[in-house]
Amino acid sequence: MTIPTNPTNAERAVYAANIVKAYRAATPDQKQRGKMWYGVAHDLATTIAGDARTGAAVIAALSARQSWERNVRFATETFATGEPKGHTRAVLDKVRRIMEGESPETVLPMHLKTGHFFRCIADPTDRDAVVIDRHALDAMTGEINGDRNRGLSNVKRYNVAADAYRHAARFIGESPMVTQAVVWVAHRDSLTSR
Known about the structure:
Layout: H1 9-25, H2 28-49, H3 52-61, H4 68-81, H5 89-99, H6 104-107, H7 113-122, H8 134-141, H9 155-172, H10 176-192
């Protein structure tokens, strides 16, 4: 489902309610894994790269259309060999620039998923960044869309989804990042159990 770039207040309320519902439906184990997710990813980024920012930037750059497992494998191999691998030429060029010392903020699209993913991994205490990927959007809309394009390269559409998670997080009493991570863990678990 492609969400509108200017949804009505009623649509926004439905999105936030779906997120709250998904968060509340998560098991205690899923909530625990979600709450720890970005801290664990931060530690992984530090381990594979020697510093969290560079590791987070490379992980984020390599993340598009990859499972988390493949993303980690490609990032780990990239740092082990010094040669970016596992993606398109354009993405690999971004990875090279980051590894050569260019600031992630100038290389990554900071206003979209990749930039937010970098921010969440580099700083698991960030109170504003929200990673919106296909799983986050499907949980928000209440529809599973498989590999269909969800239009998240549109900044307005991305911000609608991110704001829905921020609104739901305020209602839940959690950070937007943790709310998204818990919902993501629960949603992915539901897909693998089918």
